[in-house]
């Protein structure tokens, strides 16, 4: 009896190769997957102010490059509030090569903050808010005979 498995595998590989040749090279058509924020950013290509001010170091959609770290799916960025991100953009971090953007118009900085928050929206799960702490349990002083000693006999 002849096995058709090798022939089937060759046909599948050939079909995949043919699809790769006709598939669009444009990354903005990438399907949404596990990296949904990055895929959405690829589809929108980010705001023009990001392309002008940030993409040179941080990549077209914040995926990082040899000059600057990734901003997309970055837990350190995701943990910051909008005010903290804006303050960082204003002062920069010259020691690490991040310039200050204090002269950038407030509207442009706000656009960058919204974009950074959007590409990090699914990076971390924030804990649920908790209510007031429970009342502390107060134990009375131990009484003879109510606990076992180290050797297992009743105290007393």
Count up the helices: 7
Uncertain parts: 13-34
Largest sheet: none
Fraction of residues in helices?
40-55%
Strand content: under 5%
Average pLDDT reading = 75
Q: What is the general shape?
A: elongated
Structural class: mainly alpha
What gyration radius follows from the Cα positions, in whole Å? 28 Å
Number of strands: 0
* SSE string, helices as H and strands as E: HHHHHHH
Distance between the termini: 85 Å
Report on the architecture of this protein.
The protein is mainly alpha-helical. The chain is 41% helix and 0% strand. The chain contains seven helices and no strands. The chain has helices at 5-22, 36-44, 48-53, 55-58, 75-78, 82-91, 106-118. The longest helix has 18 residues, at 5-22. It is elongated. It starts with a helix and ends in a 38-residue tail after the last helix. The model is unreliable at 13-34 (pLDDT under 50).
Quick recap of the structure?
This protein has 156 residues and is mostly helical. It is built from seven helices and no strands. Helix 6 (82-91) crosses helix 7 (106-118).
Secondary structure topology:
Layout: H1 5-22, H2 36-44, H3 48-53, H4 55-58, H5 75-78, H6 82-91, H7 106-118
Helix pairs in contact: 6-7
Task: Write out key terms for the chains shown.
elongated; 156 residues; mainly alpha
